[in-house]
Amino acid sequence: MQELSFTMDRDVLMLAGVVAVVALAGLVVWALGAARRRAEADLRQQHLTETVERLAQAQAELTGRLSESHTSIGERLDGLGKRVGDGLQQQTEKTGERLAVLQQRLAVIDAAQKNITDLSQQMVGLQDILSNKQARGAFGEIQLNDLVKAALPAHAFEFQVTLSNGKRADCLLRLPNPPGSIAIDSKFPLESYEALQQAETDDAAKIAGRTFQADVAKHVKDIAERYIIPGETAESALMFLPSEAIYAELHANFRNVVEESFRRRVWIVSPTTLMATLNTVRAVLRDVHMREQADVIQAEVRKLLDDMGRLDERVDTLRKQFDTASKTLDKVRTSTDRVSLYGNRIDQLQLGDGDDASEITPPTVRLVADS
Prior knowledge:
The protein has 371 residues and is of the alpha/beta class. Among the domains are: 99-131; 135-292, 3-Layer(aba) Sandwich (Trna Endonuclease, Chain: A, domain 1), CATH 3.40.1350; 301-334. It has helices at residues 2-131, 133-151, 190-197, 202-227, 244-253, 255-263, 271-292, 294-347, and strands at 157-162, 168-173, 182-186, 237-240, 266-269. β1 (157-162) and β2 form a beta hairpin.
């Protein structure tokens, strides 16, 4: 039992020693770990300190850069504000100028709009005039009167002339024989022309065309019978159409009516062709007037030639007098030159104190009498 107890005590002691050794080893390990942790903590603290210092330095640099950036940005903002202000001022001035130009253009547009309104009212009035046959006839006569007055002198025409057959012509051109006085009558077949233009079918167009053709042919016949009087008027007359459109339609699509007017010696004219005809009439009147004044002109030319002959004789006499005066002036010039030469010679003579003036022989002066 003692041995067992001793053995147990020994085991306990051994176990206690092992425990102590293990505890000591653990203590050593803990101490080493603590030292390592302290070293790591010191190292981390050092790193942290360096990081803080670097951050502080970076913060200082960043603060300086921010200050510089703030200054630069402020300067740029000031420059940008100035440029923007100048730009806005220039833009404001340009906008004001453009608004002024726009206002002027708007004023022009307003005036044009007013003119268009007035023209529309006039067109409505013209349409009302053309819708009435009597007013339409007066419109054609007024247009005829204006064209004739603008192209011919007052003595070459007469309006609303009653002929020997009792018919009244709208205008009578006073021309000498031949050809004699030419009558002009204004006609305006508007209804049949508008019906022709507004026809929507071929049948309607044919009917309107026949009506238009018949109206114009009747006008041509009436003018030929009323205003061509042998011994009183010319062998032809004029039918005035106040519309270029009707004139063009007639010559483009109704040649038979135009040819019929040729046969009846009735010349159909529009405002344009009438003006050309009137200019021809004016040239004829000018030629007639020149022929009437030919004798007077010849007499005046003969007088002018006689005057030119007398003027030539007088010019020749004057030229001879000028030649004689020129020769006389040349002779006077020669004499004055010689007198000047003698004066220079006399001026060059010098008399000394002991010189006897009687001993000085004056230069021989010979005056040549020029004939």
